[in-house]
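Issue 218. Parser rejects a valid record. Input:
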Amino acid sequence: MDFSFLVNSIGKKVQVERGGPDKLEGKLVFIRPEFLILETEQNGYVYVQSRHIKTVSEPVIPEIQANQVNMEEKNMNILPMVEAEDFTELLRKLRHRLIRVNHGGPNVIQGVLIEVGDGSVTILHQMKDFVYYPIYHIRSVTCIFNNQNEKKNENKQANEMTQDSSKDRGLNELSESDVSGKARSETSGRKNEHSKSDYSGRAR
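Output the parser choked on:
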């Protein structure tokens, strides 16, 4: 279906589908006869194949966000939008990227797009198997950040924080032990002084 009639809705918030796993909400940013592009808060740019779209909704009264986020900061974690004239060309431009096919449901698959043929794509899934997916059945495609390095850094920082915390606890325990030892020594010293004083008194 050609959604060129939505050209006046570009830049506005829309909802694709009324419900279910394929429901998407976001700002409409690009229209082509074979696909739409939505900018979503959760997943960045989502490329939706038009032939599978049943409904597109637009609120009568646009939502006004009380706290507007600086768009430059917001877009720092969004991969650049990819433009193409048709859906197959779009997929070819996404080769060798980590993608998610479809938004929800049992046919969601995530992996690296290896090859784009005339009627299907080849996806390397979890470095274990090749999945051949018919282009006709692809409802949407989303590019995904590879957060592996970020997760490693987070784990490293967490380990360092744990080690620092353990060191601090060890130092505190040592300090408490030193204080207790000094207190015991001072108490013992005072007892010895009292004993000597008592003995001297009795001797005189």
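Fixed in the parser; the record now loads. The chain has a mean pLDDT of 79.
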